[in-house]
Write a structure and sequence with these properties.
heterotetramer, A: about 325 residues, alpha/beta, seven-stranded mixed β-sheet, five-stranded mixed β-sheet, 11 helices, B: about 375 residues, six-stranded parallel β-sheet, two-stranded antiparallel ribbon, about 45% helix, binds thiamine diphosphate, binds magnesium ion
Chain lengths: ~325, ~375, ~325, ~375
């Protein structure tokens, strides 16, 4: 079983899905001969041909809208948006159509489509290439929002997203694309789209995160372990629909929770998780629920972005505060 | 997708002067003048009395539906409604040219086409009455009415792409208003359809107004047909109150698209005789003096005069048709009024194919006695 | 001092702002001769002329983008989006440009613009006319998000929004447009854009809401008062930046909090408020923080919308549960 | 805004046949062939040696900046960079035709125009180096570089509207690529500019490629100039590697716009000689054989040959210019490299004009010692 990185896992899942189901087609900018600017679709044009891998003109709203039309006719389009900074024009189609086609027609038409996009910062990119955009989608009923954080989870979650009968927004953390490798068996097994993943067990504090900053979160957990503190680490992975139970169960055990995400704090999805704890887990809480997130500032350009992203130090500081809380 | 020819490269040859590299022409067609007289040889289908009678009946039915919907709305028994009064020929001429297996993506003024293509007046009443079941057509695979202006136009490109990839000889047809042509959605969809030569026909239902904004304030383009030029696609104008012209132009465009000849745009020039919707009061922005002359262009009267002139339509035919249309619409309205709302929990059932656990819990709460009582 | 309703208050504020500052101009669909589909701009075209009140072609993305261009040159455009169902195409311009122009140019260019839109359900409208869209905007740094819930607050908040040096999304609850009248003095006094409003004092429970459902929230408080329960009612009004202090202070007093909003629960802005309580007000909490919100379903059509909107009964049930919690 | 003439109404007069109602023609112009020889009488400004020398110098400076930026990026001292190699004539010809008080809204390949208009190479290095101060131009009121493709085009309409409302004789100029023409933003902005007759010039910097997508796959439109037709606006093509043609077309368009004649679109046909950006590898999708012939079209060599043929440029001029450009760019690069990053707290300072309390607290936390240490 080969070790592959996250972007290779995305590629593997796409290839698998296309091989097993002829209705799966890819569309987007530069995904064909070029193989995608991150090479997520590398080799697929050659393997599946120009009728399965379609280089579109440059128009994101159109890409989303055409996908809705395709999906309504039984195709399973997987659209790539080149960077999350350019995903906004898809919101209209996702909110007004993709997420509603089923309910508007009482099930007569459906919209099984995936919008994939590399997401988040940390790669010293030019402006508008480092956005964390999940909260544009988490308040849209009828959508699923999925963010993988490891090669294996990327593979399994993407397969499930493509097979899902409803629209899925699939945000791939750019800075994890080539951050590490793990063994991924190309067995076609999907992972559930309504489950959080427990990455690490621990009894003292629960760290909840998703996407890019899971890297720093896991590093913080490691560091805490070396100090004798057991940090349980949860990868939310599917933000919508949210698996509150796994998070609540963990906090019931640890009593303390730090939520880590890269999107700006206010209005970020961390609020939803803290709210669930305040609503359904209040008696478990031995300390305030802390959020370590991007600041409520515009994402700075490359030279300052490290000051914006949640760092291991900031996570550790929040954990220490939670642990010391009486 | 086969790349389009890169004409601008060859064009560079013209050197010494500013030289023409591309030329375009927009043509306008009509067959009947407003009194129903033929201005030129009619298309083949017009030799057939039954064909013309069918067009006429469909327009009358559409108008009967329209009138009933207005009446229901005015008496508080229907939601906001968008009348198509005076625009019936666009919808009917188009629908008559389509094949059953083609797919219509309407805007919200095409009930004439929807009725022709198997959507029942009962379903339409349900839709306009605020009930999702109105788009769960029992006898049509078409798209539902689209309210967010122009947003269904890219869907048409997607549907057409599906047909093309499956090698099906089917055509997608998107209808949208003059106002809609200003939305980027239309430009993007036209452009894609052009470069991928998709089997799709775009129909601009140009009724002269977008709510209070007249056509001349919507764009400086001399015609809306020329929106096609930006996409490297053919565009043409027809008299949208001449159902023969609409039908003929649509038939040609559909045929071209079906045979792999790519997309086409038809601007059908008609006029919105009524308010924008029942929530609108056009007298605020549109002088009656502008409206009056347009009554003389009424597509239904025009075709009736034509039929009468050819001795193909008698008083008895007219009376029979009116009665029949009324009966059909009344029956549908009666059934609509007798249809209770869906149970509240249906709200949850169709949001996803499989109800997520989170939502299942919300449904429980929604159905709990305390919550179920509206405040 | 005349009593006017909310949409008249909007009109009054627009007229005032235009009279006092020639750089204020309005643009949107049908806002000129027609006076706007809700009549929010009635009479302004006649009074200020076609160079101050501009009927645009039908294109929301363009309306937002042109506003950015205008604002960059010292105008103060106030754009109307006809319904929130059509506001999605403005997100790209708001997120990528309006909210960033200042920081991208280190203050060289600024973007003082307002995007107004009638928001929310409850008026038995056709589909796509009843959306609560605040959470598309609350996670965009550099924006302000304001939702008035009374004629007086609409007047004062809109004046401040127009005068504000940064972009503001101003969402007007459609079902409150003509719901009630109150005295509004046309004195040009703005209201702060970083403050919640305490509408009603009470010591037993804090009800936090904004927009349309404040109506049911206030009705619930009234009902509770008749039962001897003191409900403090807070109108958040400005969601971004959030005045957490006022909410925290109230809950410090009452110990119990019910948040009411119309947007779907998950990923809604109620999560942010609950999170602040779990983070900074944990020790005050005597009961779980409850959220009464729209369900995580697509907004139903008119016939079922009453089952979707937070009702007085649902609010009361949540309050009773909070009160009975030991 | 004055409404545009509603030509389609008058057009209805042509009755009996499908009759033409609108005609359009796109013209292409160039002055110099690739060897620098005049193909036709040159525009007036070309009689002035100093004018032509200035154009030449600006193109050489742009290329020197480009080369240095590439070198800095390749050695890890600059961020991803978009080279304009071979496209210098578009930016420079345009900038030379503009007045100082006009306003440029560039895409990301117009440093030739930015440098002409007062943006310093130091500022450009800062921008491409990931520092916001690079758009805080000390001597320009122009818009910053725009990365989200086409999204600045509506800004240009807004800026032009501001000029028009203030009765200022200024013109907004938006530049965007061939790929950008597929975005709805462009269609919407063109349409508005057309119907409101805004003083704006749209320039399509058509370099044949949008990353890996060639022009022919972007649209079936025979020319990109005809995108203007959809907006009822004039469009034309010029040889974008002929700086005289660009300058002359731009001057005419600017003059027309300035005099209230409304907007204009220029498609400047050039070629992207290099990779899309330093993050791209064009050899994956573009054969070298396609690229090679385009080197013969190099706008800088073309103008140099023209100058030399007219005896207006000697070896010493060339050597002096190269040295001068290098010195300017080296000095700027040196200053850039010596500029420390901004303090982290600047992140907070410009998000709003006045720091909201919420954000002030975050700033405190950000500056606290524990948090300030990056993980
Ligand atoms: C995207 C969008 N913006 C605004 C509206 C509100 N609205 C409904 S119909 C309409 C005018 C549409 O004009 P046109 O396209 O000419 O169609 P018509 O109503 O004349 O048939 C407007 C502005 C909408 N439904 N969708
Ligand atoms: C809206 C948007 N989508 C995608 C991208 C990623 N991207 C950057 S440049 C580019 C191609 C642009 O092509 P063109 O408009 O021809 O300009 P050129 O790069 O050739 O100068 C793409 C797809 C982007 N920056 N913005
Ligand atoms: Mg219309
Ligand atoms: Mg290009």
């Amino acid at each position: 079983m080969p070790e592959i990185n996250l972007v290779q896992a995305v590629n593997l899942a796409l290839a698998r899905a296309m091989a097993e189901d002829a209705s799966v087609i890819l569309l987007g900018e530069d995904i064909g001969v070029d193989g995608g600017v991150f090479r997520a679709t590398e080799g697929l044009f050659e393997r599946f041909g120009p009728e399965r891998v379609l280089d579109t003109p440059l128009a994101e709203n159109m890409i989303a809208g055409v996908s809705v039309g395709l999906a309504s006719q039984g195709f399973r389009p997987v659209a790539e948006i080149q960077f999350t900074g350019f995903i906004h024009p898809t919101i209209d189609q996702l909110a007004n159509h993709a997420s509603r086609l089923r309910t508007r027609t009482r099930g007569r038409l459906a919209c099984p489509m995936v919008v994939r996009a590399p997401a988040g910062g940390g790669i010293r990119a030019i402006e508008h290439h480092s956005e964390s955009v999940e909260s544009f989608f988490t308040n849209i009923p009828g959508l699923r929002v999925v963010i993988p954080a490891s090669p294996a989870r990327a593979y399994g979650l993407l397969l499930s997203a493509i097979r899902d009968p409803d629209p899925v927004v699939f945000l791939e953390p750019t800075r994890l694309y080539r951050a590490f490798r793990e063994e991924v068996e190309d067995d076609g097994a999907g992972l559930p789209l309504d489950r959080c993943f427990l990455l690490r067990e621990g009894g003292d504090v629960t760290l909840v995160s998703w996407g890019g900053p899971l890297k720093e979160t896991l590093a913080a957990a490691e560091r805490l372990a070396s100090e004798g503190v057991g940090a349980e680490v949860i990868d939310v992975a599917t933000l919508k629909p949210l698996d509150g139970d796994t998070i609540l169960a963990s906090v019931a055990k640890t009593g303390r929770c730090v939520i880590v995400h890269e999107a700006p704090l206010t209005g970020g999805f961390g609020g939803e998780i803290a709210a669930r704890l305040a609503e359904e887990g209040l008696t478990s809480l031995l300390a305030p629920v802390a959020r370590v997130a991007g600041w409520d500032t515009v994402m700075p350009y490359a030279r300052l972005e490290q000051h914006y992203l949640p760092s291991e130090a900031r996570i550790l500081a929040a954990v220490r505060q939670a642990l010391s809380y009486q | 997708m086969p790349p389009a020819p890169d004409l601008h490269m060859t064009a560079i040859s013209g050197e010494a002067e500013a030289s023409p590299v591309a030329r375009f022409e927009i043509r306008y067609s009509r067959y009947l003048d407003e009194s129903g007289k033929a201005l030129r040889p009619l298309p083949d289908f017009a030799r057939d009395k039954a064909e013309l009678a069918a067009l006429y009946k469909a327009m009358v039915l559409a108008r009967a539906f329209d009138a009933k919907a207005m009446a229901l709305q005015r008496t508080g028994r229907l939601g906001t409604f968008a009348s198509a009064l005076g625009q019936e020929a666009v919808a009917v001429g188009l629908a008559a040219a389509m094949r059953a297996e083609d797919l219509l993506l309407p805007s919200f003024r095409e009930h004439g086409a929807q009725l022709w293509r198997g959507v029942s007046p009962y379903e339409l009443f349900l839709f306009w009455g605020g009930d999702e079941r109105g788009s769960d057509f029992s006898a049509s695979h078409d798209f539902p009415i689209c309210v967010p202006v122009a947003t269904h136009v890219p869907h048409a490109a997607g549907v057409a792409l599906a047909f093309k990839l499956r090698r099906e000889a089917r055509v997608a047809v998107a209808v949208f208003g003059d106002g809609a042509t200003s939305k980027g959605d239309v430009a993007e969809a036209l452009n894609l359809a052009g470069v991928w030569r998709l089997p799709v026909v775009f129909v601009v239902n140009n009724n002269g107004w977008a709510i209070s904004v007249p056509r001349a304030q919507q764009t400086a383009a001399e015609t809306l047909a020329q929106k096609a030029v930006a996409a490297g696609m053919e565009g043409e104008q027809v008299d949208g109150n001449d159902v023969l012209a609409v039908r003929e132009a649509a038939a040609r465009a559909l045929d071209k698209a079906r045979r792999g000849g790519g997309p086409h745009l038809i601007e059908a020039i008609t006029y919105r005789l009524g308010d924008h919707t029942t929530a609108d009061d056009a007298s605020r922005y549109r002088p009656d003096a502008e409206v009056s002359p347009h009554w003389a262009q009424d597509p239904i009267a025009r075709l009736r005069r034509h039929l009468v002139d050819r001795d193909w339509w008698q008083k008895a035919d007219e009376e029979g048709l009116i009665a029949e249309a009324a009966a059909t619409i009344e029956e549908a309205a009666g059934r609509y009024l007798a249809t209770p709302p869906q149970p509240a929990e249906t709200m949850f059932e169709y949001t996803y194919e499989r109800l997520p656990q989170d939502l299942a819990r919300q449904r429980e709460r929604a159905l709990a006695p305390a919550a179920d009582t509206a405040g």
